[in-house]
Amino acid sequence: MPTRIMESPTRRSPQVIQHRSDRGCWQIALGTPNPALATDVVGYWGYTDSEMRVHRRRKAPTGHVTLIVNFGPVFRLTDSLRPDVTTEPRHGFIAGMHETPVLTESTGDSHCVQVDLTPIGAFRFLGCPMNLLTHRIIELEDVLGTSARQLRAALYEAGDWATRFALLDRMIATRIALGPATMPDIAWAWAELHRTDGRVGIGTLTEALGCSRQHLIGGFHRQIGLSPKKVARILRLNRILRRLETTDHPDWAGLALDGGYYDQAHFNRDFRRFTGSTPGEFLRHRLPDHHGVASV
Questions:
Q1: Does 48 map to a domain?
Q2: How many CA atoms are closer than 13 Å to the CA of 134, on its beta-carbon side?
């Protein structure tokens, strides 16, 4: 059944966060997707940066597929797995599932809209095997065709964040209604991993589904973009990163245990792999908006 988006006169206004410090001056608008898109869209972000200086941030993988519609200067993006390859999408891009951090560079005066899609939502929205996008950052027009320019123009002309986010609701629902269906067992396994922040064993999933590991891994590569084991590790790390948002003096051993790590060395290896820094370095350089760490 197609996803139906019902306009609500009580739709919540976006939350707007202002920041000014020695690390920059920016504004972020946080939008909540329509509840009908709950399994497909994580959230909307509107971003403006009024300072004309270069910003570099290193962001850990989130377990989401990110879509950016850009109204400002070009971003420079580099995947740490391929540091010799830099992408400079002009009007926007889609970043597939990653298991290593991405370096983003902007020259200030930024203005963009970000949509974080669940991997299942991205599969339905884009209509292509998700492993084709893994560790790739692709120009928006190369994925959406001419509709990318139409979307960018419509969002720009909308003028305010609430109208832009409502427009995204409708556009995403329309594309998903026309997109491919997900495999029920893959959708369920992804939902379980997400619900538990990756703290459920792959054997537990296959036993509950009555399927082989090969079947689950193959389905994840096609409709998620990474294996279930890699997805679980990313979700566990992001659980820890969320908890770090509320403290400057973390109990690392307790955080590691809560994230499903029973070996501190294993936790440290995963933390460096996914964030590009040690836990201590991460704390010293994290950005106030919690979207990664400052990079030089």
A1: yes
A2: 15
Burial grade of 225 (CB within 10 A; 0-12, 13-18, 19 or more):
buried
111-119: average pLDDT: 95
Helix (H, G, I), strand (E, B) or coil at 129: coil
Of 236, 232, 252, 234, the residue nearest 244 (C-alpha): 252
How many angstroms separate the CA atoms of 140 and 172, rounded?
14
Query: What is the C-alpha to C-alpha distance for residues 226 and 238, in angstroms, rounded to an integer?
Result: 16
Confidence of residue 170 (pLDDT cuts 50, 70, 90): very high
Q: Domain count of the chain?
A: 2
Question: Cα dist. 56→60, 105, 202, 205, 293 in Å?
Answer: 13, 4, 36, 39, 8
Tokens of 192: 């379980």
CATH number at residue 194: 1.10.10.60
pLDDT at site 1 = 45
Does a structural domain hold residue 129?
A: yes
Residues 231 and 276: their CA atoms lie apart, in Å, by 17
Kindly state whether residue 3 falls inside one of the protein's structural domains.
no
pLDDT in tens, 177-227: 999 999 999 999 999 999 999 999 999 999 999 999 999 999 999 999 999
Q: What is the pTM of this model?
A: 0.88
What's the domain range around 281? 184-294
Q: 119, 154, 178 — which closes off a domain?
A: 178
